[in-house]
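Okay, is this right?
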Amino acid sequence: MTWTPRRPGRVFSAVAFTVIGAVAALLLTAAGALPRDRERLPAAGPVDIGFSQDMIVHHQQAVTMAQAVLGRVSPSVAQLATGVELNQIREIGQMQGWLNLWDAPQVSSGPAMTWMSGHQGHGGADDSGADDSDADDGAMPGLASVDEMNRLGELEGDDLDAYFLQLMIRHHEGGLVMTAAAARDATDPHVRAFAVIIATEQRQETATMSGLLSALGREPLPLSG
């Protein structure tokens, strides 16, 4: 069975995400978050660009998972899913805006996580609060597989609540691996600060999800998936 979100009207297309990014770029510039003159932008290194490209992909799956369960889960889980959806759409827009201002591709043409390849075997916790050693194999950490997404579309009741929470907790833990590296190694100070903000937000959401999952009598999934 091929998984299809049961709320197709809520799924953002690639075009919609691109529009969000363009608007975010204009708002960031107008608000003074980034200079109006491209020549005055902080230099964007491979970590800035690679992190933004890969985190957009990572966030888009979280948005898809959240949209797929709305209307099907309990009110407490739905509230959490809505918060994840809105936060990650906003952050996608900011990262797409940066890529636009840097004249960088919105999507990487190579394998995921190559921007972390220079740090394999050197994992460690830092200001974003995660250990990046789990990204050493080059895979994007925390992503749900096709089979897992299919199962998310099929479950109901408490089983759906619990599985969504399990997948999203693991997804957030994977995101912390990425923010740890960006907070440490990004060239642009805006990107380093943003990585810490994402990490703080996702730790808070993870704490809430862990409480909801515990109340259902279920355990988190291992990050290795």
Observations:
- Residues 1-33, 119-137 have pLDDT under 50 and may be disordered.
